[in-house]
Amino acid sequence: MAEKFTYSFRVKWTTLLGVFSFGILVPTFFVPVILGSEEHFLWIFVATLISFVIWEGSKLIQALILYFYPWEKSIIKHLSYEVASIFVFSSLVLIVGLLTYNALVSEVSISISVVLQNIFVSFLLALLFIAINEGAFLFGKWKASLLEQERLRQENLIAKVESLKKQLDPHFLFNSLSVLSGVVYKDPVLADRFITKLAQVYRYVLEHNDEKQVPLQKEISVVEAYCFLLNVRFYNKVLLDVKISEKPVYVLPLSIQLLVENAVKHNRISDTSPLELKIYTTDNTVWVENSLNKKDTQVESTGIGLKNLEARYKYVIGKSIQVENSGHVFKVGLPLLTDEA
């Protein structure tokens, strides 16, 4: 849904600058009156009032043009409509103000040259207003962009730190070694495969953690190895179904593994409630979907895993992840990258 247009009148320094400059300049240099006379001060009052209306009205026009024709869509349309609209508006206000003043205060008739002169002044007003306000607007956008970049950089650093913590997280290694000790004498063949898969997972973490992106197939292969380890631990109650595109697409390293890890962390896994995991691609997204069977006891969590993933995707490719929860199924969509970094 498109964002609703809102606007509030606020007198800022640009308004004050425009009001006082033209409120004094026009009556002093463009109106044939005696300087310091009562009529001169009356003209200053009228010119200041007209300038205020023009300045505030032009700000509203600028906001409307920005809403309907933003810079990002078309610079030419934006500037053309803005210059034309503000020029017409300021010309009408000037002429109406001049005629009103002439009818109520002065008996001097308004000639065509005076009208043209005021239209010229209104054109200067429009250009000055646009230059000042667009400059202030673009400076504000540039400043906001720098702050956003810095925020994303900080979040990316936090995500990297969290990722490094996971490398050293003793729980996964502790659980894996406990499982290994249980099978090493009972089933040496299974123990050998377990060690191979465990080494594959840790080798992947060490080799690819600092990379910007990895092929989807490579990430899936380590997720399959990770699920093999889980299935030895949970007696084949982690059901993994993978249907992905064969196209050369990429994801952020450890992004899918993180989602699988979260699914195991927050759900019960038992004979009656196996954990069903589905990984599939649609258009430009890879979805990681898991059945919901939440644990009765609250699992200790920092709650920043998905936030970090969101921050990493925004920082690297400028896109958000998608999160959907139907109550029975929880799934996360990760944007696919198509170019190799």
Automatic annotation (TrEMBL):
InterPro entries: Bact_2-comp_sensor_kinase, Sig_transdc_His_kin_internal. Signal peptide: none annotated. Residues 159-237 form the Signal transduction histidine kinase internal region domain. The keyword Cytoplasm does not apply. It comes from the Bacteria. The keyword Magnesium does not apply. This is Histidine kinase.
